[in-house]
Specification:
Elements (H helix, E strand, L loop, with lengths): L1 E6 L5 E7 L2 H10 L88
Antiparallel strand pairs: 1-2
Length: 119
Amino acid sequence: MKQVEIQNISGGTIFSAACDSLVACVALAVRRNVSLAYAKLAGANLTYADLAGANLAGANLAGAYLAYAKLADANLTGANLAGANLADANLTGANLADVDLTGANLADANLTGANLLNA
């Protein structure tokens, strides 16, 4: 295992732990109820990640791979998801208000009950 850091968009450390991968570290942070608001995760491979209930408000997830990710009830308010791959992602009840979805792949994503205000 290696020490993995999740930084915010200003370069500060939000969370750090010994993990096998970034996806494992992000999932661990979510399980520990760490807020990932304004996290810098652009281009990250978070395929199949369990991020249900995560606070990712204002996070930079541009170009991230979130296919099959569990984002049910996640707070993504104001997040940048431009060009992100959200194919088959579970976004049930997620807050996507003011999210940038320009060029995002939402093929077969479950958006049941999601807040898409201004998305």
